[in-house]
Amino acid sequence: MTLEQILNQASDYELDYGVAVDFAGSKKQSLVEFVNDFAITLAKGYQNGQYDFKFGDGAANWLFGFMTDEVFLSSNNNTLPSPAYDVYLAFDEGEYHHRGDSDDVVAEFKYTKPRVNEILSGNHS
Q1: Which residues have C-beta within 8 Å of that of residue 101, sequence separation ≥ 6?
Q2: Alpha helices (H) along 1-122
Q3: C-alpha angle 82-26-66 in degrees, rounded to nearest 5
Q4: 63 with 88: CB under 8 angstroms?
């Protein structure tokens, strides 16, 4: 299985937790390394137009579920790693209309795209 296949299954909410854990193990990655690699690959694909917002949001939501699973949290001192959590938040911000924004504001363009660009440029603190 490739990371591309992992992302495709995650975006469709069809990726089993065990499959992701096995994939990380096959690549000799810790779960933290896996989620960060997943997130950066997703962010880059979104930035370059390979993935649309719906794909990215689905994969990011799967990622958040994976990172908030008890097994993952217990393996990482109950913390959510960066940049994986930052990428999730970037997509989450694009899901809804924000209070104070006019009706013509597209949350994806105002929040997600600029945040993904910041994360990929290394400004994700």
Answers
A1: 107, 110
A2: 3-11, 17-26, 31-47, 53-67, 70-75, 84-93, 107, 113-120
A3: 40
A4: yes
Rounded to an integer, what distance in angstroms lies between the CA atom of residue 18 and that of residue 92?
24
* Burial of 97 (C-beta count, 10 Å sphere; 0-12/13-18/19+): exposed
pTM of the model: 0.94
Burial of 50 (0-12, 13-18, 19+ CB in 10 A): middle
Q: Under a CB-based contact definition with an 8 Å cutoff, are residues 35 and 84 in contact?
A: yes
How do the domains of the chain map onto residue ranges? 3-120
How far apart, in whole angstroms, are the C-alpha atoms of residue 78 and residue 4?
27
Cis bond upstream, residue 83 (ω within 30): yes
The predicted-structure confidence for 47-91, as pLDDT tens digits, reads as follows: 999 999 999 999 999 999 999 999 899 989 999 999 999 999 999
